[in-house]
Amino acid sequence: MLGFRNLRCARIILGGIETMRMIRKGQMVTPKGGSPSAAKQYEARALQR
């Protein structure tokens, strides 16, 4: 990786990486009886910001 061009890009990229780690570890809160895919969980988390 060459590095980040600015702080905004770094924040966005690192936030996405951390979100994917949370999804893999099962730390995301899901509705009762639901088990959305990793992509759906990522999309929901990304739209919250």
Question: What's the short version?
Answer:
With 49 residues, this protein is mostly helical. The chain has two helices and no strands. It has one domain (7-48).
Itemize the secondary structure elements and their pairings.
Layout lengths: L6 H19 L12 H11 L1
Helix pairs in contact: 1-2
Describe this structure in words.
The protein is elongated, with a radius of gyration of 13 Å. 2% of the residues are buried. The two termini are 25 Å apart. The chain has one domain. The model has no long low-confidence stretch (mean pLDDT 77). The chain is 61% helix and 0% strand. It is an all-alpha fold.
Number of helices, where a helix is a run of at least 4 consecutive DSSP H or I residues: 2
**Level of helix content?**
55-70%
What class, by secondary structure content? Answer: mainly alpha
Low-confidence stretches: none
Tell me the total number of β-strands. Answer: 0
Largest sheet: none
Order of helices and strands: HH
Radius of gyration: 13 Å
Overall structural domain count = 1
